[in-house]
Amino acid sequence: MIRRKDPFKDMHEKMSKMFENMAETGFNMYNVQLPVDIRETDEKIIAEADMPGVDKNNIQVKVKERSLYIAAQGDREVREEGKDYVRHERSSKSYSRTLQLPEPVKSDSTKAKYKNGVLTVEMEKKEKSSDYNVEIE
């Protein structure tokens, strides 16, 4: 008699193991990537990233000619004590994202500010090079 393996049981076991591994590594399936909005004006490119609960000193911003890198670490601790219970929870989030910019920017004139959980990065666009006619001697 040949026994067939139940494919649904096998799939259930694999999925359960996958979700257990995600929980152990701190993976949050609801906030996989740092959300960033990019706007463009005639002179600037402006990026806004939602980063609630992150200390300003734990944010890193790097700008190259056509890319923006944002990284941060946020820690949170909750303590509650009641008559019949004690609750103490800690969580940690880390964000990291590299974005391609629509146009080259001047790295040295970039400004960043962090207010109310939102990081705003303003990058000045590089002047577009114009054609230069070269005379032939």
Overview of this protein structure:
The radius of gyration is 24 Å and the shape is flat. It starts with 6 loop residues before the first helix and ends in a 13-residue tail after the last strand. Mean pLDDT is 82; it is low at 28-32. A hairpin with a 3-residue loop joins β1 (36-40) and β2. The strands form two sheets. Strands 1-2-7-6 form a four-stranded antiparallel sheet, with no helix packed on it. A three-stranded antiparallel sheet has the order 3-4-5, with no helix packed on it. It has one helix at residues 7-25, and strands at residues 36-40, 44-50, 59-64, 67-81, 86-100, 111-115, 118-124. With 137 residues, the protein is mainly beta. The protein contains one helix and seven strands, in the order αβββββββ. Helix content is 14%, strand content 44%. It has a domain at 32-124: Sandwich (Immunoglobulin-like).
